[in-house]
Specification:
Arc Repressor Mutant, subunit A; 3 domains; 14 helices; single chain; alpha/beta; 41% helix; Nucleotidyltransferase, domain 5; five-stranded mixed sheet
């Protein structure tokens, strides 16, 4: 890795500057639908001629469309500019501990098609074929022109989950099968579409950031209570993935359990933790979506689990806020909305009991996306890097692709 104080090995070339300007224009139009060329020039700081030329280029590429001319205003009639939702598509493929969830979306994040299946554990010997067949079926629903506009596949999984698959009851031979499987490479070979691995917690965080109403919080932490505890962090509106994509592994933070012992966040704020409580009564967590579980029947076990999960997440949020100045903390889950609301309330109650010395606590809110967050975020990140990101590495990758 280059030293911070060493000069960059590759400067911003003219082509890269042009790509950055193009992405700035497309972003402005996408998040401010109906801008005129004059508005666009003011918002991006580009010369009117430059902005107009880029708009024409984006229109030719099918990413931007023009509305009807607005008359009756001062000055020249203005033509509003809009993102053409049929201009690009991407696929989010989440392969997780207990389910596979695949989503095809357009550039406006509208869901075109989706497939989800729950299972006891991910089977390395069949999962690629299942994903490839599903993706082929979703893509087949698009016409040839639309198929050519697919940005690629965002593959969302927990980090290191192949080597840890026995934690969800998979047989020992699955560890060897996962060790021999490069999932992203195999999926790309099976589909013919460029495939990028992403951490599922980062994907869910990105999706919530995209769907947060303006003004969006610039610094947030996202916690997703599922089989284990997924997480993501944004700082200054930027998703912090780190060099390996695992920077926000907040579920591995050490926290205090109600029994006085230190534990990982995963061990307390997860459905595995709930399952351990249920097991004492001879109840096994069913295979299937948590939205369909009999939560009311389990209340005597759910209530103490919520308290301990809230306490664990409060410590995680507090410690994260001490390192990254947080504006907002989002808590979500694949569980029903009322369970998510109770998780938020339990966390807020525990946060209020923690001693604060120079730490500003963030505002707590419930997530809006539930089990859509990870596959949707995987698709959005793929689209973002292809068409919107002004990061030099993303622009160079798009040019090479």
């Amino acid at each position: 890795m280059a030293d911070f104080f060493e000069p960059a090995e590759r400067g911003v070339q003219h082509a890269s500057l042009r790509a950055a300007n193009r992405r700035a224009v497309l972003t402005a139009i996408a998040f401010n639908q109906g801008l005129s060329n004059a508005d666009l020039s003011r918002r991006t700081g580009l010369a009117p001629q430059t902005a107009s030329a880029i708009v024409t280029e984006l229109e030719d590429d099918g990413l931007v469309t023009r509305g009807e001319v607005l008359r009756g205003r001062r000055g020249q009639p203005a033509t509003p500019l809009f993102l053409d939702y049929n201009g690009a598509y991407s696929i989010g493929c989440e392969i997780s501990w207990r389910h596979i969830d695949i989503m095809l979306v357009n550039v406006g994040s509208q869901e075109i098609g989706r497939y989800r299946r729950d299972y006891a554990y991910p089977d390395a010997t069949t999962i690629v074929d299942e994903a490839a067949r599903t993706i082929a079926g979703l893509v087949a629903a698009l016409d040839a022109k639309a198929q050519a506009r697919i940005a690629g596949i965002g593959l969302a999984t927990p980090s290191h989950f192949g080597e840890l698959v026995t934690l969800v009851g998979a047989p020992a031979e699955q560890v060897a099968a996962w060790t021999d499987l490069d999932l992203a490479t195999a999926l790309e070979a099976a589909t013919g579409l460029p495939t990028t691995w992403l951490n599922d917690g980062n994907c869910a965080c990105f999706a919530e950031m995209v769907f947060s109403p303006p003004p969006r919080p610039s610094n947030l932490v996202h916690l997703f209570v599922s089989t284990f505890l997924g997480a993501g962090i944004t700082a200054e509106h930027t998703l912090r993935e780190g060099p390996t994509g695992n920077s926000a592994n907040l579920g591995s933070m050490l926290v205090n359990g109600h029994d006085g012992r230190r534990a990982l966040g995963h061990d307390l704020a997860s459905t595995v933790a709930l399952g351990n409580r249920l097991a004492t009564a001879g109840i096994t967590l069913p295979v299937g979506s948590p939205t369909e579980w009999p939560w009311a029947e389990w209340e005597r076990y759910v209530a103490p689990w919520l308290d301990e999960a809230g306490s664990a997440m409060a410590e995680i949020i507090y410690n994260t806020a001490a390192v990254v100045e947080l504006d907002q903390a989002i808590i979500d889950s694949a569980a029903p909305a009322e369970i998510v609301d109770r998780l938020v309330a339990a966390t807020e109650l525990s946060l209020a009991t923690l001693a604060r010395v120079g730490v500003k606590l963030p505002r707590l809110v419930a997530g809006k996306l539930g089990n859509r967050a990870a596959p949707l975020g995987a698709a959005q990140l793929t689209m973002f890097r292809k068409h919107f990101s002004r990061d030099l590495s993303d622009m160079l990758a798009a040019e090479e692709g």
